[in-house]
Amino acid sequence: MPAFAARAPAKAILFGEHAVVYGRPAIAVPVTQVQARASVMAEPMAPTGRVWLEAPEVGLNCDLDALPVDHPAQILVRGLLQALAIDHLPALRMRINSTIPIAAGLGSGAAVSVAALRALSAFLGHPLDDERVSALAFQVEKAYHGTPSGIDNTVITYARPLYFVQAQPFELLKVAEPFTLVIADSGVTSSTAAAVAGVRARWQAEPERYEALFEEIAVLVNAAKETIESGVPEKLGPLMDENQQALQKMGVSSPELERLVEAARKAGAWGAKLSGGGQGGNILALVPPQQGETIASALIQAGAVRTITSVVQASSG
Ligand code: PMV
Q1: Which residues form the pocket of ligand 1, taking CB atoms under 6 Å from any ligand atom?
Q2: Which one of 8, 53, 71, 111 has the fewest CB atoms closer than 10 angstroms to its CB?
Q3: pLDDT class of 1 with cuts at 50, 70, 90
Q4: CATH code for the domain of 179
Q5: How distant, in Å, are the alpha carbons of 8, 159, 174, 231 from that of 313?
């Protein structure tokens, strides 16, 4: 039997992280320069039902049954079997490789889930459509992250820029003019679940202040959507700066992230902000296309451990 392989990209949240957990809109884009890949092949010599997992980047090389029942791989396989109404698997080997930095706000977990669900369902002869892939990846995100909005699994499954409101059909964005992002990794790993829980605790303590910040962010997200659709991308810069200020007030920035945001602006970026859960992970800088390289070097000088330059291509939505 041949191997079945599938890929999924990383993602970046352009506007609206955290507020999206509270029903406000957000905008996310795929980042295809880094990817997760899953391949599944039959193991005819192994006992029926044995699922062998290999994920060298996270040091996994074991039988699925050896993992705790709440491990994301267990949740994913159980969820898939239930969705396909299959009660047992043939013996198989699944290999996961990913170039997406882990715990860095780029959606590595959701990308692994999407790639694995696609490869495994194709191997079983029941390839899932995008809607079911995204829904199952969301189940894994929920078990892993607590209260995810669903934006990561959605943008990673559809691999298109989108405008997202929790529990509503998402909207593919019309991108009138391409724009260039430099994504810079602070090198500080951070847990999205912890960042989201921190915001929740502060929101509970000061609901009015936090609701006002979420509202402020919603206005920025809607202005950004119009700007992307009407095609003057440099106008997104000030909106990113304002979004960053609101995130800072919410307590999800950090000295490392602030240093990178500042360095990007000084080197000529039109705007910059953290992306994802924050308190570590990556920043995004919106850059004049011809200045991408200079700004990326300035970010490395300011302490970034790596940069990715990604062009959001024009699309009709
Ligand atoms: O840190 P990431 O890439 O998983 O992004 C999380 C985005 C949040 O808005 C903070 C949480 C969510 O589920 O939307």
Answers
A1: 13, 17-18, 20-21, 105, 107, 148-149, 151-152, 192, 196, 276-277
A2: 71
A3: low
A4: 3.30.70.890
A5: 18, 12, 10, 12
